[in-house]
Amino acid sequence: MTRKMILVGAGGFGGHWCAHFLPPNMEDGVIEVVAAVDINPDALQNARKYLGLRDDQCFTDVARAFDAVRADFCAVVVPPPIHEQVVDLALAHDMHILSEKPIADTMEAAVRVADKVKRAGKKMAVTMSHRFDQDKTTLRAELRSGRYGRLDYLICALTTDCRKYGAMGFRHEMVDPLMVEAAIHHLDLLADLAGAPCQTIYAQTWNPPWGEYTGDSQGLALLHFDNGARAVYEGALSNAVGLYGWTRDYFRAECEGATFVLDHRRLERFVYDPSRTWADGRPGQGEEVPLIQQPKWSNAWLIEQFVQWLDGGEPMATNVEDNLQSMALVFAAIESSRNDRPVDVQAVLAAARTAVAAA
Fold this sequence. Notes:
By secondary structure, the protein is α/β, with parallel strands linked by helices. The protein is built from 10 helices and 15 strands.
């Protein structure tokens, strides 16, 4: 069944939705884009060019668009502080929601959004796109196979040269750009690869003198999961060079029976040999693991998954209720850095629920 959708946000990353994520699903008959919204009229040119929308399908006001055009769901691709407002309008117009991360700009707002969606009887998912990239999906399949014993710990690194003002757009003005806009993907991924909710996180974040950010652009974190697995995270937006940039990030998984190294989208497996001691290895010497093949990845695949969920399929792994775990990870990390102590991630989520219920 082809589902009708409205794109909210056609500029910035919304341009990638127009050019790359939506067209494959339009061609497959998964969706029909019936309208696009952006406060910048020039950004709507992306919707005209890539989606074939007419002028009467392009709007600069989201409320007017929702009033004028009927759709099954909307895709929210606008800055986080606006997410809750768009969700409210979508629910008032009987629409489901597929949103870019994060759910909202505060922990309490994220809980409010999840509660509103549940009360309305609608479905909402968050596009945690890194989790559904080809290389990470392949690594997850290897860890879940059970062939290599229990997972011991994970290491993840994102290092980029985005120090100059404007390199990350509006994110240079954010209080916590690394955690809210970058680490949210990687912390979510680490929890997914670990296969368990995070119990505690200890993080330190800062902004070096050369980082042209209002908030913290660099960070290190140590995570402990409910199943005993641990993880180390390195995140940097202000380095001299991007050794492990977006989609070319570094992961290492240490299991009882194997070490996995994912580096620049190449996955290697080093299998434990009990007959050897002090066994050495180096990148390039492991067994290359072929990446899983399929037509769609990342956001394009997530759009297809969302429509399948609307049509009665299994709930998406990144449904809004479950994605509160990722939000709690981020805000626990922020709290940890500010207070210089480990923070109970589940307590952060519980406190937000209590605050929202009492409001």
